[in-house]
Amino acid sequence: MRIAGQWRLVPFVAVLFWTFAPAAGSDAATLHVANNGVDGFACGAVDSPCRSISRAIAVAATDDTIIVGPGRYGDVNGDGDFDDPGDEATELDVGSCLCLINVNKRGLTIRSRDGAAATVLDAGGLPVSVVHVQADDVTLGSRRSGFTLVGGHRGVSVGAGTRGVTVDGNLAVVDAGDPSTDLDAGLFDAGFVIDGSLHRVRYNAAIANPALGFVVLGDRHRVEGNLASVSRQQGFYLPFGSEGHTLVSGFAIANGYEGIFVDVGGHARTLSQNVVVGNRGAGIALDRIAEGPIVVRGNNIYGNDNSNCGLWNNNPDVSIDATMNFWGFAGGPFEDPGDEVCNIGDSEAVTDPFADEEFPRRRWDSLW
Amino acid sequence: MARLTRTRRLWFSLLLTLVLVAVGPSPAPAVTLHVANNGEDSDGCGAEGSPCRSISRAIANADRGDTIIVGPGRYGDLDGDGAFDGAGEETAPAECGCMIEVNKRLTLQSRDGAGVTVLDAGGAGVNVVRIFAGFVIFGGDGKGFTLTRGNGGLEVPLGALGLRAEGNLAVRNARDGFAGQFGRLKNNLAVANGHNGFFVLTSFGELTGNLAVANGIDGFALTLNAARVSLSGNRAVANRGHGFFIAGRKNTLERNAVLGNRRFGIALLTDDVTITENNIYGNNSEEFNGLTNCGLHMAVDGSLDVTNNFWGSADGPGPDPADAICNPGGAGIDSEPFATREFRIDVRLPRPRPPLPPVDVLPHD
Fold it and tell me: pTM for the whole thing?
């Protein structure tokens, strides 16, 4: 049987493809950073690591991977400036990222070698983001390879206009300003401030931050498995303009205000499978959200609010589906020891059917 | 068999009585009490279906040898009024100087892990937990607590022997994360506390797999009275003081990571210490006592063997990028042979995630 002329070219094209496809893939390099590294124009090989992550980012190309060894990164000699060998670049000028480390190349993956607790990014008390991401498709951390972020007012911020960023496995214990006393305090000082579109924010922890745990701006992020505990203000805060997010399998524990707060003009599509326990404000507060529907389902919600509101609902024009939640009491939302649903004015949240026992044990995986 | 005389029968009865009194009634079997954020305190609380609201109440209701399981949420000053006197709040006895006093031999564990089980002293100037009884177990693998906003996190005064603490997180306490007399500390994390991460006051403890990160003073501090303490698999990273401060004698540091601490990596006030197979680099980047780059600093005279450690360079201790050995006290320090590559420090891996709840509660996604 004869093969038609154009089909005879198929093996040739296939050989060409397999020859060059791996070569294209191999363009992405892996660079290394370590506390015993030295910054240089070509640093980053495994046996000549950079000292600073900023330097590795400058050396890296799009889609490269940066592996960061354990230790401390920031103002290395603690002299208050960031211009000594090994210091992170730190941008403080008006109009800059206002950050210790600026991730500005598309597709970079930055991970720690030994995990979050052993890899400390320290902004030294400056009112900045410890890490700011302003490029698409960046990955910062992974479940066993994240970072500890200290000494700034925001742990990780992801800029408006970005898309497809992953922030995974990081721990933020920052010095965010208290707006009532700190003139440097920003509007959204928090462990994590996420703007842009379609990001994945997962398995991070914001613990004991003086302001907010997570601020979720932008649209359609998937916020999964994160922990916000002992924040001075809200655990998870979705302000005006946030749109269509999914908050799933997270933990809002013992925060000073609400566990999860969708503020006036904000919106989330789904709040599901979360553990919302022991917050001083309402467990979940929905205040005149931008639009419906919003589904609040499969959550454990109890031990919240001095007024006992597990769900605080001020949405007279939007129906809230809050079925299949556990309210701390087998009989559904009720007075102590359960949590109640507090509907404001003509608001109404549908809570029946409810779960009559706690959803299966949900541990939060430690980062250390 | 010869019959017992009346006198012998009397003595036998007396002896039997003494034995029975000495042995005492058989102890009640150990039970498990429960505490939850949807519990209520009462004299009889603690059953699984009627948990206590406060850990203090469960301790009061417990007997020696019992286990207390604590559900997720906040424990402490619940209404945030600065006092520990509301319903369900911890008792914070004044003589204890603490929010939760453990005065019985108990096992205290969280049900869902440290991250979601918060003991919050609210900045009231007391320690979060103080343990006065011997052989208490506090936490466990995936069963620890978060201790925060106390004067100190977990404190064990002298005399309380054999404490085992595992899987706990001490964060943002004003002073030390963990302080006192320890039997065994394993896989605990002290981060961003005002003073030391771990402050060891007495001898014969064992610290394995703990992390001290970004604390205000030292990562691990062993006082003059802390002797024969074993430290292995720990990591002291990015602390403002030294990574390890060792004043007591005959302590052992093996397979620890001492990285990026602002003062000395290891500061010694003794030459009677074993230091081997540790990773020591990136320390003392900030000038201290006129010195920089000291991975190990020995302030006293004597002789010290610190062979087989990794100092950040295949060439051994020295100038950047390695850490150096500093001995202003004039000690003879032997560092060769040194390791030419980093040691593997055992890293505790996260527990596998449990399966998610049935999908029928999940909305569209």
Answer: 0.90
